[in-house]
Specification:
With 209 residues, the chain is mostly helical. It is built from nine helices and four strands; from the N terminus they run ααααααββααββα. It has one domain. Strands 1-2 form a two-stranded antiparallel ribbon. It has a two-stranded antiparallel sheet with strand order 3-4. A hairpin with a 2-residue loop joins β1 and β2. The termini are far apart.
């Protein structure tokens, strides 16, 4: 069953403004070492993850969490009978995994795509999306792709062909849900990881040609 988008535009904008602020992560990572990035991201992720666990099992934390954030949560994040992580935890998890397993230029690009393009796709899709497919719109996906191309053109030193492949992969991943059985992988995680894998493979193929 498709999930109905419950957020009004103003709450979507507020949610995505927070999401866009995560662009600070790849910007900072560009200027610091991998070791320092991990030193900062590990406790940050641990804190988000701990709050997510406590909100599912510890009533005082659950009451505070829902009172504070309910207006910006999606339907699946409000289901009381289902243990879940929220989008903020997934975005920090994505940053941590990118830093751990991918070259810096790929990690910075992949994370920038989800921070910038996913934000624009959601706002454009909700504001102007008339041609729907599933839970997405042609207008939102077009905004994602065009902004993704702009992002990969801006990242210093990134091979443009590799960047375009990453932009295409990220757009397709955002447009179509990634599932493992009944579990839907949050796009804050699937978009950056899928694009990073595609970019890394493309870079390796370019080296061995």
């Amino acid at each position: 069953m498709e999930e109905i988008d419950r957020l009004e535009l103003r709450y979507e904008v507020a949610r995505k403004a927070i999401h866009l602020s995560s662009l600070s992560i790849p910007v900072i990572y560009w200027f610091i070492s991998r070791e320092l990035a991990l030193f900062l991201l590990v406790p940050l992720f641990s804190g988000f993850f701990l709050i997510d666990l406590l909100k599912n099992f510890f009533t005082p934390v659950s009451v505070w969490y829902h009172k504070t954030f309910d207006s910006m949560l999606r339907s699946h994040e409000l289901r009381p009978a289902k243990t879940h992580l929220n989008g903020a935890t997934y975005i920090v998890m994505a940053a941590l995994l990118l830093v751990l397993f991918f070259p810096k230029i790929i990690a910075v690009t992949a994370f920038s795509l989800v921070a910038v393009s996913d934000t624009l796709a959601a706002i454009i899709g909700k504001s102007f999306g008339k041609h729907r497919f599933g839970q997405k719109s042609v207008e939102g996906s077009a905004a994602f792709f065009l902004s993704a191309v702009a992002v990969v053109c801006i990242v210093p030193g990134l091979n443009l062909f590799v960047g375009i492949i990453m932009a295409i992969t990220a757009t397709l991943t955002e447009a179509f849900m990634v599932r493992m059985g009944e579990f839907k992988i949050d796009d804050n995680l699937s978009i950056p990881l899928a694009s990073a894998v595609a970019g890394t493979l493309c870079s390796l193929l370019s080296i061995f040609r």
